[in-house]
Design goal:
Length: about 120
C-alpha cells in the first residue's frame, strides 16, 4: 500500500502510520489548519492575547490591584475577555483564560489568577 504525504502528495517512505514525508510538510500542513481564518478572528485573538499579557505583567503575585488608568495606559481593552465568573457573594470577575479582574470602587480593579 503506497501512502502519500497529506501536504505535498509525495510518496511516504518509513513507518506505516506516517502521514507526512518531512517535518517541513508536517509543519506547513498544521500551520494551514491552525491559522486564523479571517482578519476579524485574528484581530480578536490579538486583543485577547494583549489583554492577557497586560494582566500577567501587572499581576505577578496572583492577586493585586491596579487602576483603570494604569490598565488603559498599557492598552487594555475592557470589551475583550474569555469568560465571566459570578460568585455566590455577587461579585463579578472577568477572565482572560486564567487571569482575571474584578471592578472595585474609585476606578480600582482587583487582579486575580485562577489556579488551573
Amino acid at each position: 500500500m503506497n501512502k502519500t504525504c497529506l501536504e505535498c502528495g509525495e510518496k511516504i517512505v518509513g513507518r506505516e502510520d506516517k502521514k507526512f514525508c518531512s517535518d517541513g510538510c508536517r509543519n506547513a500542513f498544521n500551520n494551514k489548519i491552525n491559522k486564523d481564518s479571517t482578519n476579524f478572528m485574528r484581530n480578536i485573538n490579538n486583543k485577547l492575547r494583549k489583554n492577557y499579557r497586560i494582566l500577567s505583567e501587572l499581576n505577578t503575585d496572583g492577586k493585586s490591584k491596579a487602576t483603570r488608568a494604569k490598565l488603559l495606559s498599557k492598552g487594555f481593552d475592557f470589551e475583550f475577555f474569555t469568560n465571566i465568573l459570578q460568585t455566590k457573594t455577587g461579585n463579578t470577575y472577568y477572565f482572560l483564560y486564567d487571569q482575571g479582574y474584578m471592578v472595585l470602587e474609585n476606578d480600582f480593579y482587583m487582579l486575580v489568577k485562577k489556579d488551573i
